[in-house]
Design brief:
By secondary structure, the protein is mostly beta strands. The chain contains 1 helix and 7 strands.
């Protein structure tokens, strides 16, 4: 799925954590690994495990929302901001197959103070958009 000329840089990952999306210390998590593309988009290539199915052979809708939310969170994090989801909107365009490669892409579209508007999408190996999301993230004070 990755274009041979695409230059992806691994995103720095925090120490062991239990995040369901990216946490290495979560034995039942998705263990997503994100990369920064040259244009500032975050990218993750993965496959939804069949343990996360809704209908047989397809990802559960909540898992699809999780993939989009995690991707958007990483897009905000790429800008050095730790933020939490305030509002999430998901468009389920086509079923997302389980155990098949998919590509997650996300980017910040606008920021204003602590508010960050973000978009993400899930594509199949042919590049077709399967799901898309928009969200508002609010930076948290650590």
């Amino acid at each position: 799925m990755t274009a041979t000329n695409e230059n992806l840089t691994p995103m720095a990952h925090a120490a062991q954590n239990r995040c369901f999306g990216c946490g290495e210390a979560n034995p039942v998590g998705l263990h997503l690994k994100f990369f920064r593309a040259e244009d500032g988009t975050v990218v993750c290539e993965t496959a939804v495990p069949d343990t996360c199915e809704g209908p047989p052979g397809y990802a559960h809708g909540g898992i699809i929302a999780t993939l989009l939310d995690e991707t958007m969170s990483k897009a905000v994090r790429l800008h050095g901001v730790v933020a939490m989801t305030a509002r999430l909107e998901v468009d389920y365009r086509r079923p997302v197959p389980s155990a098949m490669p998919v590509r997650l892409e996300g980017r910040v579209t606008r920021s204003d103070g602590r508010k960050h508007w973000v978009e993400a999408r899930i594509r199949n190996a042919a590049g077709e958009e399967l799901a898309a999301g928009k969200a508002l993230f609010i930076a948290i004070r650590l």
